[in-house]
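Page 47, continued from p. 46.
Same chain as before, 121 aa.
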Amino acid sequence: QVHLVESGGDSVQAGGSLKLSCAVIRSTYWTKCLGWLRQVPGKEREEVARIDDDGKMNYSDSVKGRFTISQDNAKRYLFLQMNSLKPEDTAMYYCAASKDDCFTVSHFPAWGQGTQVTVSS
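Result:
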């Protein structure tokens, strides 16, 4: 089993920055691929970034150059540094994990409870 707990969500002005954190509990065999996804009410979840065990990162085009995904050396925490925030970044943000290689992951099987990010213009 794995538990994921997000924190750091807040309300910020457009152009501001915010850093989200995710505590990865019982992460053994569940840190092969970690990611951040977001969801707006009424819409499907959208993956914004992922990172594999080798530190290789991938981003959606909508956040590339503005967001940075990272993790601590012990792989107990996953982070998402968000800069130059836009109103369209407003969403519930979730961290997620998979035992599979990131190359093969299309949908993450494990999710956190989410943390709300609101960006005002």
